Amino acid sequence: MALAYFYKPQHCISHMFFSEIIGQEILKSRLVQTVKENRISHAWLFFGPEGAGALPLAVAFSGYILCTNRGETDACGTCAGCNKNSKYIHPDLHFVFPVNKTRSVEKDNIVSDDFMSEWRNFLLKNPYGRLTQWFDLIDLENKQGIINTEESKRLAGKLNLKSFESDYKVVILWQPEKMNDQASNKLLKLLEEPPPMTIFILVSEYPDQLLTTVKSRCIPVKVPRISNKELTDALLNKHQLDQTRAINIERLASGNYLKAIDLISESDDIRYNFEKFRELMRSCFKKSIPEIIKLSEELATLTREKQKSFLEYGLRILRECLALHFNATGIVYISDEEQEFTSNFAPFINGNNIVPLTNELNKAIQDVERNANGRIVFLDMALKLSALIKN
Ligand SMILES: [Zn+2]
User: Fold this and answer.
1) pLDDT tens, position by position, 119-168
2) Who's near 362: CB < 8 A, 6+ residues apart?
3) By CB distance 3.0 to 4.6 Å, which of 23, 102, 122, 382 could disulfide with 226?
4) In angstroms, what is the span from residue 274 Cα to ligand 1's centroid?
5) What are phi and psi of 130, to 5 degrees?
6) How far is the CA of 301 from the centre of ligand 1 (A)?
7) What whole-number distance in Å separates Cα of residue 93 and Cα of residue 318?
8) How far is the CA of 80 from the centre of ligand 1 (A)?
9) What is the rounded CA–CA span in Å between residue 98 and residue 55?
10) Mind listing the pLDDT tens digit for each residue in 32-50?
11) What is the number of other CB atoms lying within 10 angstroms of the CB of residue 187?
């Protein structure tokens, strides 16, 4: 049950509809209106800060354009076009995004098409995803992702063909600032003399880095930070947070949905670490071997990063217990429960055992880093802690 903290499924969306986008109501209706009035410009620049939703908006907009049975405010979700869009396999929807050689894709002239299945997963899992998450997903290591000249050439080739199923062909170009100059100039040619019935949507976080000539060809669409109220609502409804936690996270996230997701998972981790550390210390204190074994086994199933984070959390609690002996003020607690536990636990931490206790946790961290067997590491550590917190 405890592992639910880590394996809780992400809020999973299949296709990005306007209705799935957090806030941005004015923009949504403006975009819907252009389609309804048949005034879709051939080039758009959606730009805004991380986590505001420029990419999901572009995806929803393209979905609405390609839907063959459009509703008043959204794509129908059931026509053949929507069906293909839900898997990001619509033949008239093209994606361009930064890539580079990876260990699994090593050839020259690498283009977005070489990573289409990864890209689909990326969009399906978190359409608000950030560039570094994309680079991690394709395992780019320290390399930079770029959009190269070959990409622009291929795109021109594809767009020369007639659309397959829809009246329109739509190109979503994510992070166009990653184009080199040559690629930008080729794109510029496409924007200047667009193939018929083709719509380009550039999605940028840093529009200042784009060529002015490219920018001047596009209708600018500024995607602002998500409003406080709308972000709070999303945290309450999509993520089922309680009111207090939703408001706390909204305040720290300042309109950035990605930041909010990071904060949720950080606070889940802290909560997990607290509960497990408290449980472990109680079993150590009781010298309950079956409980210690059970907990060691559970902790061993965590990823190495999570194991380390647990142990580092334990070190922090030990430091705070010691600080309490000196009436140190200014300790920051995550919750009342954490504060209560720390003050109850503090009497068992003293000048005699603090150093060996700290050593045991540090040794466990080193063992985890060395990829030692987690069950043995945690069991060994817990038995030693149990002996040390006797008095
Ligand atoms: Zn449809």
Assistant:
1) 999 999 889 999 989 998 999 877 889 999 999 999 999 998 888 888 99
2) 315
3) 23
4) 47
5) -100, 165
6) 44
7) 55
8) 7
9) 14
10) 999 999 999 999 999 999 9
11) 28
